[in-house]
Amino acid sequence: MANTTHIGLDQVRQQLRQPRTQLKGRQASPDARAEVQALIGLPPAGGHRRDLLIEHLHVLNDHFHGLFERHIVALAAEMRLSVVEVFEVATFYHHFQILKDEDVAPRITVRVCDSLSCSLAGSDSLLRQLQRDLPGDVQVVNVPCLGRCEQAPAAQVGQQAVSLATTEKVTRLVAEKHTQPLALPHALRYEDYKKAGGYQLALQVAAGLKDHESVIQVLESSGLRGLGGAGFPAGRKWRIVRSQPAPRLMAVNIDEGEPGTFKDRTCLEADPHRFLEGVLIAASVVGCEAVYIYLRDEYHEARVMLTDELAALQANPPCPLPRMELRRGAGAYICGEESAMIESIEGKRGEPRLRPPYIAEVGLFGRPTLEHNFETLFWIRELLEQGADSFAAHGRHGRKGLRRFSVSGRVRQPGVKLAPAGITLRELVDEYCGGMAEGHTLSAYLPGGASGGILPARLADVPLDFDTLQPHGCFIGSAAVMVLGVHDSARDAALNVMRFFAHESCGQCTPCRVGTDKAAQLMTAEVWDADTLQDLAQVMGDASICGLGQAAPNPIRCVLAYFPQEVAAEVKA
Amino acid sequence: MSTVQFTLNGQTVEAPAGQSIFNIAKDLGIAIPHLCHKEGLTPDGNCRACVVEVAGERTLAPSCCRSATPGMQVQTNSERAVKSQKMVLEMLLADLPEQGYKWLDDRAEAPHGELSQWAEHHGVQVRTALAALQREAVPADLSHPAMAVNLDACIQCNRCERACRDLQVNDVIGLAFRGAHTQVVFDLADPMGGSSCVGCGECVQACPTGALMPKSHIGPQKVDREVDSVCPFCGVGCLVTYQVRDEKIISVQGREGPANEGRLCVKGRFGMDYIHSPDRITKPLIRKAGVAKDVSSLDGHTDWREIFREATWEEALDLATRPLNALRQEYGPKSLAGFGSAKGSNEEAYLFQKLVRTGFGSNNVDHCTRLCHASSVAALLEGVGSGAVSNPVRDVEHSDLIIVIGSNPTANHPVAATWMKNAAQRGTRIVLADPRITDIGRHSWRNLQFKPDTDVALLNAMLHVIVHDGLCNEQFLKDRADNVAELKAHVQDYTPEAMSAICGIPADTIREVARAYATAKAAMILWGMGVSQHVHGTDNVRCLIALASITGQIGRPGTGLHPLRGQNNVQGASDAGLIPMMYPNYQRVSDKSAHDWFEKFWNTKLDDQPGYTVVEIMHKALAPESDPHKVRGMYIMGENPAMSDPDLNHARHALASLQHLVVQDIFLTETAWLADVVLPASAWPEKTGTVSNTDRTVQMGRQAVLPPGEAKPDLWIIQQIAQRMGLNWHYTGEHEGVAEVYEEMRQAMAPAIGGIDWARLNAGSVTYPCVSADDPGQPIVFHDHFPTADGRVRLMTASLIPANEQPDAEYPMVLITGRQLEHWHTGSMTRRATVLDALEPAATASMHGREMQRLGLQAGQWVRMASRRGEVVLPLRQDDGTPMGTVFIPFAYQEAAANLLTNSALDPFGKIPEFKYCAVRIEAATLVNA
Question: Chain A interface, mutation test: which of B65, B91, B873, most A Cβ atoms within 10 Å?
Answer without folding.
Answer: B91
